């Protein structure tokens, strides 16, 4: 399941969010072996992220630049903050002008297909994340959903995906991400 919704937030609120992201210093954090530049999601955005039948686990804003977050890292969002995820959302925030065309790519693994198996072992999940995540020979691209400011993409969190392209050459790729579990 993948769903795209343009003009997700009211325009004035989106412009406020975009201004916040473009004029606030991101904080660099380390999660496992990966570093991210993040900002907190403003509280006034949270009501728009509510989804019937799902409970929000976490949300934050992240950025990728020409010098940071430059790998592909194909993955599925299996466990977030110790919770089994069911749904993920990406809201594109960066301005279109002056930014490398980007989006979210969905992939097919040569063994597992398009989705992380429900019964995947921790060992196999760790192997996928560490060994296969950037090995192009083990994947084929299935679809790219390109970014537009204020476009929301919602998808099953076990789908293999990545940012696209791996490296942003101009500007910044800025996205709000949100992860959910079933209620």
Task: Describe what this molecule looks like in 3D.
With 183 residues, the protein is mainly beta. The protein has one domain: Jelly Rolls (Sandwich). Helices cover 15% and strands 39% of the residues. The chain contains 3 helices and 12 strands; from the N terminus they run βαββαβββββαββββ. A 7-stranded antiparallel sheet has the order 1-10-7-12-4-3-2, with no helix packed on it. The longest helix has 12 residues. The relative contact order is 0.29. This is Prolyl 4-hydroxylase alpha subunit Fe(2+) 2OG dioxygenase domain-containing protein.
Summarize the structure.
With 183 residues, this protein is mainly β. The chain is built from three helices and twelve strands, in the order E-H-E-E-H-E-E-E-E-E-H-E-E-E-E. The protein has a single domain, classed as q2cbj1_9rhob like domain (Jelly Rolls).
Summary tags:
single chain; 183 residues; mainly beta; Jelly Rolls; three-stranded antiparallel β-sheet; 3 helices; 12 strands; 15% helix; globular
Which helices and strands occur, and which strands form pairs?
Blueprint lengths: L1 E4 L5 H12 L4 E5 L2 E7 L5 H4 L4 E11 L14 E2 L2 E2 L2 E6 L10 E7 L12 H11 L6 E8 L5 E5 L4 E4 L8 E10 L1
Antiparallel strand pairs: 1-10, 2-3, 3-4, 4-12, 5-6, 7-10, 7-12, 8-9, 8-11
The unreliable regions are none
Identify the CATH architecture.
Sandwich
The DSSP helix count reads 3
Shape call: globular
Strand order of the biggest β-sheet? 1-10-7-12-4-3-2
Amino- and carboxy-terminal Cα gap: 18 Å
CATH superfamily: q2cbj1_9rhob like domain
| CATH class type | Mainly Beta
Specify Rg, calculated over alpha carbons: 16 Å
Helix percentage range: 10-25%
CATH topology: Jelly Rolls
Largest sheet: 7 strands, antiparallel
How would you spell out the order of helices and strands? EHEEHEEEEEHEEEE
β-strand amount: 35-45%
Protein name: Prolyl 4-hydroxylase alpha subunit Fe(2+) 2OG dioxygenase domain-containing protein
